[in-house]
Amino acid sequence: MIKYKLLADFKTPGAEKLWKVVNDEVTGGGSESRLAVTPDGTALFEGTLSLENSGGFASVRIHIGDLLLDGFRGIAIRVKGDGKLYRISIGTGDKPDGPAYQMSFATEPDAWTTPYFPFSEFLPFFRGDLISGAAPMNPAEIRRIGLMTADRQPGAFRLEIEWIKAYLDY
């Protein structure tokens, strides 16, 4: 049996207010996105990804603080996608816009899936570029979790999220 620790869900009223939208407008792009809670208690991350004017990403993130994840093996998420590729992003330390450890995952159109992401397989990135020689992610230092779409996939996107959990064994 897998042991989990809940990191985020959307059943609590106002849960979406804890999430911050960060799109490529910070680099002059024109992508748009939003995160809204559905009547079913899930979140819908949706919008339009634009490659114009150095654009190409849309993201949402949450600051989770110090949740004592030392000893956990990875993160699992319950999502329903649109068939596009997404990334899960993990920020460590206290700098909100510092490097992030990321993994990509594919979604199946209109199907719920639960991908598992071992911490040992995350790669360090800074503003879309892979960082060579960076230390492996330390789960005890995790402070932020995010989801994003990028990878030169212009057009509408839609990702529904039920929960995000850390897991001990898988």
Low-confidence parts: none
Helix content: under 10%
Total DSSP E strands: 14
By helix and strand content, what is the structural category?
Answer: mainly beta
CATH architecture: Sandwich
Largest beta-sheet characterization: 7 strands, antiparallel
Describe the fold and architecture.
With 170 residues, this protein is an all-beta fold. The chain has strands spanning 4-9, 19-23, 32-37, 43-49, 58-63, 74-80, 85-92, 100-106, 112-113, 116-118, 123-126, 129-130, 142-149, 155-167. Strands 1, 3, 4, 6, 9, 10 and 14 form a 7-stranded antiparallel sheet that branches. The protein has a 7-stranded antiparallel sheet with strand order 2-5-13-7-8-11-12, with no helix packed on it. The termini are close together. The mean pLDDT is 92.
